[in-house]
Hints:
3-stranded antiparallel beta sheet, single chain, globular
Amino acid sequence: xxxxxxxxxxxxxxxxxxxxxxxxxxxxxxxxxxxxxxxxxxxxxxxxxxxxxxxxxxxxxxxxxxxxxxxxxxxxxxxxxxxxxxxxxxxxxxxxxxxxxxxxxxxxxxxxxxxxxxxxxxxxxxxxxxxxxxxxxxxxxxxxxxxxxxxxxxxxxxxxxxxxxxxxxxxxxxxxxx
Length: 178
């Protein structure tokens, strides 16, 4: 085996066909190759931008909005080769965020109303309605949904009674005047 040999791992690497920067550090990505091939995702890249020093310049939204696709879809760049984000990193963030249709599927799978989902996720019912219609669904909410389903599955597999997805009734204390 020489230095120039290519080793195929059997895993198709992600490649982007098109990238459009949007407000609030979101990229609209159409995938050309990889596990998400043919999909269009709204990807919140703010976790990477606000976690790593290398992306600190992108906290200026004017610079963020000037991204272009690079390296035949293997990366996104902002002005120079020094400031790039790989398709693999963007795909990882895409897998942690959901579209409105994926969020609706979560609600249906778990027989949750918007009100029940709001109580479960610690959000307002209006915010849940926004996730259902417009999105994008924040990464933390998507991860909480994954965790909820994992917990339900684990409890089901252990033979317990499971989790009641409906919120507990709100009990009001009697006022001191009555």
